[in-house]
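Lab channel / #folding
Pinned by the channel admin:
"Please post every new chain as: sequence first, then the structure tokens as a reply. Keep commentary short and put observations after the output so the thread stays searchable."

First post following the new format, from NK:
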Amino acid sequence: MAPKTALTEKFGLEYPIVSAPMGSVSGGRLAAAVSNGGGLGLVGGGYGDADWMREELSLAKTEATRPWGVGLITWHATNDAVEFALGYEPHVFMLSFGDPRPYVPAIKAAGCALLCQVQDVEDARAAQAAGADVIIAQGTEAGGHGARRATLPLVPAVVDAVAPTPVLAAGGIVDGRGLAAALMLGAQGVLMGTRFYAATESLGHQRARERIVAAKGSDTRRTRVFDVVRQYPWPEAYTGRALRNPFMERWDGREDDLGAALDGEIPAFETAVREGDFDTAMIWAGEAVDLISDVAPAAELLRRVGVEAEECLRRGSELLSNARRTSST
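Reply from TO:
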């Protein structure tokens, strides 16, 4: 039996697990598979590309038989993009990396639950004040964009700061041990990205998923080079964790030189993305890649994590029981 929490009760879930809205990876089929499998699946709206969202949100709406949602990058979002996504009637809307307040009225008016991802305690309090229904405390171990604070100390600090608003843990969580640990820190569930990148239903390139399975945590690094070459002006607080590759090794720490060489680098980078050449193109991935050993269907991943978390929590209870027996003898 998977753990029951405020998250599972709120959305009628079997597992207190949300799949991260990874841009260009978390499409409608993955979101639907996670939701139908008992978690909460989110479509990665990313930078708000209307054509991409139209196709993927349509898939999610058609294929999901249980609550699902969508996420956008807050600093790049627009009212039009938010309204466009809301038109597909998601149950949940997630905003990350920026001030959510401009978009809260529309999201609430549509009857959506609002999830806000934060990277520090101050932003958690601001998200609560803005009306977040659930707050996600994301540690630096996460794949893709994030900040500097680590998951282990950040999660309980956020839990204490925003109680009674439910908090989810994110960053370096890929299995049931991570879920059980997050629950012990006071979280009501977890947001998992990299583990679902390596799901059968993800839009990630097959070679990218194979590299995730083969990678070690030390193969990941936080960097700005992929944002520079894609010309995305991410705020200074956020960098992106990706698997190290020759492109990163060439330019990391030389971002100004890369900026001066974009005329030549952009065409080659765009070709690499199209062709799945991951010696140049990025693979966003978190530090817990050590613990990912296969590509599997989302429903199977949910089941595995749920079973392992139950076993971990049971072992924890047994430790306490053993201590009580010992003290009474």
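NK: The domain at 6-204+297-321 is CATH 3.20.20.70 (TIM Barrel).
TO: also worth noting, Residues 87 and 110 are 9 Å apart (CA to CA).
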